[in-house]
Amino acid sequence: MKAALLIPALLAFLAAFAAASSGDRQPMYKKCVGKCVVKGCDDPLPLVLQLTLWDCESNCRYSCMHKATAVTIRKHNTIHQYHGKWPFIRILGVQEPASALFSVLNGLAHWHGYLAVSRTQPRLPASGVLAVKAVRTKMAMKHLYATNAIICATGWIFSTLFHTRDLAITEKLDYFSAVCGLLFNAYIALYKVFDLASPGNRGKLVVVRMGCIAFYAAHLSYLSLWPFDYGYNMKAGITVGMISNIAWLYWCFTNLKQRAYCWKMIAFVVLVVCAMLLEVLDFPPYLWVFDAHSLWHAATVPLGYLLYSFFLDDLRFPEEQDGTEKRD
């Protein structure tokens, strides 16, 4: 789910923002942009650039960024970031082509997961008093897993838009959808840990559900009504993500003997943490296309399929009428 996958992405975006001034401060870059805006905007931009919402100023920044980069490489063997991003080669108007492509592939992974979950019939006891609880739990989890897939697929659509064109609106959509996914991930994990499908735990369900809603409403309000706080956004995302990961690991390790498929979620969490190293090892884009962030997105594509394999196994896990769980 995009929830766990996007923790390091939030960190990467903050780091990029903090380093944004290294290229912007160059006098030759500023001079180039100034001249371009005054003299280079007479002719209309190509249609593909207009469709991807490039305008005169942003196109001048792109052109001058690469001119300045060529100079700094030749003179100092150095590559700077500009406006928080490495100097990528634009392809068909797409600002970060590799990250955009891998975002699409991640979205497809979650869409495939949605289709698989929707078509899966949970394995339920044939009859008995305790079968009612099993039915309630299984159907609740199927609904949550399907909803998770929709939220994450939508989040990756916003990620694709953001990497296609870094605008204020696409940035916020990407950030807000990321935290939404993180929060829903935490909700599912807590739902499993506290058995919130049980009628006896309705009070806990209300507390967890209202807590998540209140947090997300406050989160959106703070970031929308005041200047965008990148530091807070990162800390909030990491905190929620860690809660969900810890809850998942707790549930998996306590159920591993009865549910052998729990290794998949454990592996998922561990591999996501390992993949975070790609964000730590930030470097200029190879071939002006593939940077560490794009490789992070590439690494999460197969992890999405691993995640839904766990979800499907969880739905198919047989439970006996007497309430005990059948060993695999």
TrEMBL record:
One of its GO terms (cellular component) is endoplasmic reticulum membrane. It comes from the Eukaryota. Keywords: Endoplasmic reticulum, GPI-anchor biosynthesis, Membrane, Signal, Transmembrane, Transmembrane helix. The chain crosses the membrane at residues 143-163, 175-194, 206-226, 232-253, 265-288, 294-312. Residues 1-20 form the signal peptide. InterPro entries: Per1-like. It is a multi-pass membrane protein. It is found in: Endomembrane system; Endoplasmic reticulum membrane. GO terms for biological process: GPI anchor biosynthetic process. GO terms for molecular function: hydrolase activity, acting on ester bonds. Pfam families: Per1. Belongs to the PGAP3 family. Involved in the lipid remodeling steps of GPI-anchor maturation. This is Post-GPI attachment to proteins factor 3. It comes from Chytriomyces confervae.
